[in-house]
């Protein structure tokens, strides 16, 4: 049973969302503020966090950043802000998806299932692949990525993008290709979402993100992975 942590200060919303998730076979855990949320994350096995941005003690943005410092748990953000810039900001902090209030509980459950499916289906044929004499190391059987010998926390979407590139080095992917592979046919956001994920990956993997050597831009088309020598 997958455990879903719902973090929101609206009791009615917690009740409704928890009820829908439990009907679908999830273990729904409720937290009404950021402090409670972090306590659960540090003590319990949490498979996904549904996180409201407007919390009474600590902002959802700060909670998202704290989670990303310690874990790659998938995060679905809830917010009343609906602009593309707000969506991009949330993704830049490490969120995996973004749902605008008011929303249908059924849609939330569908998105939870989609995120969990995406986060669990990315596997390499090899258990471990290394590039540039081990400078970049993807340990697929543990879903871990090391850059310069340091374990890097990636979101499920970032990890899946990296795996997509690693499976097909030097192949050029358009942004639409990556949206279809990573986010699914029903994704309604713009291609800037992919740009933000790639930007996040570069900051985590590259010594010089402004001059990347792993994921490079193919102007007018998209991106390709030029990881150097494979070990």
Separate helix tally? 8
How many strand units? 12
Helix content: 40-55%
Main β-sheet description: 5 strands, parallel
User: Cα-atom Rg, whole angstroms?
Assistant: 18 Å
What name does CATH use for the topology of the largest domain? Rossmann fold
Distance N to C terminus: 37 Å
Query: Low-confidence spans: pLDDT under 50, at least 5 residues?
Result: 121-125
Structural class, by secondary structure, is alpha/beta
- Average per-residue pLDDT, rounded, comes to 84
> H/E order of the elements?
EHEHEHEHEHEEEEHEHHEE
Structure description:
The chain is an alpha/beta fold and 231 residues long. It folds into two domains: 3-120, Rossmann fold; 128-225, Arc Repressor Mutant, subunit A. Helix content is 41%, strand content 22%. The chain has eight helices and twelve strands. It has helices at residues 11-23, 34-43, 60-70, 84-92, 105-120, 156-167, 175-183, 192-205; strands at residues 3-7, 27-31, 48-52, 75-79, 97-100, 128-131, 136-139, 144-147, 150-152, 172-174, 215-218, 222-225. It has a five-stranded parallel β-sheet, sandwiched between helices. Strands 6-7-8-9 form a four-stranded antiparallel β-sheet, with no helix packed on it. A hairpin with a 4-residue loop joins strand 6 and strand 7. Helix 1 (11-23) packs across helix 5, helix 2 (34-43) packs parallel to helix 3 (60-70) and helix 6 (156-167) packs across helix 7 (175-183). The radius of gyration is 18 Å and the shape is globular. The N and C termini lie far apart (37 Å). Residues 121-125 have low confidence and may be disordered. Keywords: DNA-binding, Phosphoprotein, Transcription, Transcription regulation, Two-component regulatory system. This is DNA-binding response OmpR family regulator. The modification 4-aspartylphosphate is found at residue 52. Residues 126-227 bind DNA. GO terms for molecular function: DNA binding.
